[in-house]
Design goal:
mainly alpha; disordered N terminus; globular; 6 helices; about 180 residues; two-stranded antiparallel sheet; single chain
Length: about 180
């Protein structure tokens, strides 16, 4: 699928076609770098402007496929391109996806910390803006999922299956 040919290596740094520093190493499904020349998982394009509904749908598909690192990229695009009032919401969602990524990689402390940080961010955003279900997302349910997963990974001390433990962004009612 993806390969190192997505960019060119110049000296010790990868560059994109415009000369900007960009890591072109192939990645696995959890975003871990693989050796150059290895086939990896197709990288999520960066800087894509989507509607919020498209962001939610695309991120959910990636989460369901066990690719939380890639879902994080979608949330990060929304965070960077969205209205100022929503940036903390999307940033919190990105933290949840990265927390799941770390939990799936077996990084228990990092995964638990990011899951809790993301849960706090979406809860705080919902409280501040009085919106519990922006774009039909179940923020209370996501916060509960994240805190529960953080407790589980700390209790078990091992990695989790990212696809099996993926959250439902829109909750059970809207799925």
């Amino acid at each position: 699928m993806g390969s190192a040919s997505a960019g060119r290596q110049t000296g010790a740094r990868d560059r994109d076609h415009e000369g900007r520093a960009r890591n072109a190493r192939p990645r696995d499904g959890l975003g871990r770098p693989l050796p150059y020349g290895t086939d990896g998982v197709e990288r999520q394009p960066e800087g894509v402007v989507r509607t919020p509904e498209q962001s939610v749908a695309e991120a959910q598909a990636l989460l369901d496929a066990g690719k939380p690192f890639h879902a994080h990229e979608v949330f990060e695009d929304a965070w960077k391109a969205g209205p100022e009032a929503e940036r903390e919401l999307w940033r919190g969602l990105a933290q949840l996806a990265v927390g799941l990524t770390h939990a799936a990689r077996g990084n228990v402390p990092g995964g638990a910390r990011l899951l809790r940080r993301g849960a706090g961010a979406v809860t705080e955003w919902a409280s501040e803006y009085g919106r519990r279900r922006p774009y039909d997302m179940d923020l209370a349910g996501l916060a509960t999922w994240a805190r529960g997963l953080a407790e589980d990974v700390e209790g078990d001390g091992g990695s989790v299956d990212a696809g099996a433990r993926a959250p439902l962004l829109r909750g059970r009612e809207a799925s």
